[in-house]
Amino acid sequence: MRLIPLVTLSGLALTAAACATAPTPAMTSPSSGAPAPVESYDWFLHQDGDEARLAYGLEESDDLRIGLDCRRGSGKLDLSAVAKAGARPEIHLESGGDTERYPAQSEPSELHDGLFLTAEARTSEPVFQRFRRVGWLAVWQGEERNAYAPHPPSVDRIERFFAFCG
Fold it and tell me: Does residue 7 sit within a domain?
């Protein structure tokens, strides 16, 4: 009969020890699921008359990861991205759980190894509406996901772009 209290006491001691351990980061600070900005990379907005471009990359460089171009009020987007040689000719986007695949034209990139892809889309499509709300966009290349988040000072560029495009 002494065995039962000893087992119970051991179980209580293990339970108390488990409760005394430090909480994991996930327990103390829930994640919003948003990717973190990458140093030196950001979303840049360029407007020239009735044309606008929102591009993610390095400022004042040819290092473009994704570009969105439009005419004022058109609701239409021209997408451009780079891909590895031999990649499927599509631009696969995700934002906040919404995804879309855009069949693309491809040609050898003059600036990077691989391909330069172009496709057409509409600003009203769910992936772009979600991008407007959550502020980040990811590009999938095969099984590789590259998420592009703005730095705090440039967050408003995304909404300004979509307001311009309609």
Answer: no
Distance CA 127, CA 27 (A): 30
Check residue 34 and give its pLDDT. Answer: 80
The answer to the question of residue 148 being in a domain is yes
For residue 114, name the pLDDT band (cuts at 50, 70, 90). Answer: very high
> Of 83, 107, 102, 75, which is closest to residue 91 (Cα–Cα)?
102
Amino acid letter, 13? A
The sheet that has 144-148: what strands, in order across it? 98-103, 90-95, 137-141, 144-148
- Alpha-carbon span 24 to 39, nearest angstrom: 26
Residue 164's H or E segment, with its range, is helix 155-165
Encoding tokens for residue 160?
């300004």
| Structural domain count of the chain | 1
Return the sign of the alpha-carbon dihedral for residues 38, 106, 60, 73: negative
For 57, the domain range is: 42-165
* Per-residue burial over 87-126, b = 16 or more CB atoms within 10 Å of its CB, e = otherwise: beebbbbbbbebebebebebeebeeeebbbbbbebebebe
pTM: 0.78
